[in-house]
Structures are given as C-alpha cells and as structure tokens.
Amino acid sequence: MAVSPRHKFAAYWDEIDKFRGHAMTAGDDYSTASVVWNSPAYHTASAKWTSTMSDRLLIEGGYSNNTENYTNEYQPGLAKARGSADWYAGASRRDLDLISTTRTPLIANVSTQSPVRFNVQASASYVTGSHNAKVGVQRTWGALATPGTSMPTSCSSIGVLPPAFRSPCPTPSWSITLHTCSRRT
Predict the structure, then answer these.
(1) CB-side exposure of 150: number of CA atoms within 13 Å?
(2) pLDDT (tens digit per residue) in 81-137
(3) Under the phi-then-psi rule, with left for phi > 0, alpha for psi from -120 to 50, and beta for the rest, what region is 85?
(4) Separation CA 103–CA 94 (nearest Å)
(5) Residue 95: beta bridge partners?
(6) Chain centre to alpha carbon of residue 99
(7) Residues forming beta bridges with residue 182, ordered by sequence position
(8) Percent of the chain, pLDDT > 70?
(9) How far is it, in rounded angstroms, from Cα 32 to Cα 105?
(10) Dihedral sign, CA of 128, 129, 135, 140?
(11) Residue 167 has what DSSP assignment?
C-alpha cells in the first residue's frame, strides 16, 4: 500500500484454525492410539515500512510474529489417572513387527504448548552512482509459555517411551524422561 509516493507500507496476517481429530502415524489404532490436537491460536504476521527519504537514501523497518498455541490430548474417554490400575492396563503398546501402536497414544500427558517468536528489524541503504552501503539491525526474541505460570519458560523435553513387543512376546524396553526449563524473571 502506498501511503505516499515515497512511503510504502505492507502487512501480512495468516491465521490457521486447524483441528486434528486423529493425529497419528501409519499403523496406529485410529480410535485408541491417536491424539486430538487443538490449535486455538496459530498465526504468522508481519509488517514493513519502506521510505525513500531522498534520491540516495532508503529506510526500511519491519516487525514479524509467529504464535502457535496448541493442545495435545487423548481421545475422549481414554485419559486415566497416572499410576492407577486403569492407566497401567491401558498403557501404549508398540508392536515392532506390525509397526503399530495400540491403546492410548504416545503422549505422556495432556499438554498445552505456546511457542511464540517476535522479530523487529531496520536498515538504511545509501546509493551513489558508483558506490552503495547498507547497514541494519535485527532483534528476535520469544519463549515457550507454560500454562499456569506468569513467566515465559523455555523448555525442551523427551517423553516416556512405551513398552515394545514382537507379536506375541514382550521385548525388554526402557524409558527416559528428560525435561529442562529456564525461567526468566
């Protein structure tokens, strides 16, 4: 959009309202091993201002944002209290021969993730008949907001690996949980 002959403004917004009722991999049981994935806020936005200050000087400035709020949860009726007899009885089972998962999905628990990223940038270009120069700055920041906390948290985690078996005999398996977070105050 031309604000004036020397000043231009451009903006972009892409909102994705998606719902994945059965997120799973090939071979997984549709009704018991799939994950419901809700995405209430999932968007990308940007804005840019360009100004020709003179025949030789161009100034540019911009902003962008990426927000992806989403929740992974069990299919209705499958969530059981962690550690209960029903939870153990319905634990995920991964068949290494059929490459399939049965029972509850491979998520450790219901989780909401809210990664968000922001970016601002500016530059100035100076052009003469035989030379040109461009200088600029860029700053980006963001966090993984954790529900129930007032501070942004940056987290990375590896979930619990389910028991694996080769039909029809169980195979020894192992599990690991690694979760690291850092909070900014």
Answers:
(1) 1
(2) 777 888 777 777 777 777 776 666 655 556 777 788 889 999 999 988 888 888 888
(3) alpha
(4) 9
(5) 100, 165
(6) 26
(7) 154
(8) 72
(9) 7
(10) positive
(11) T
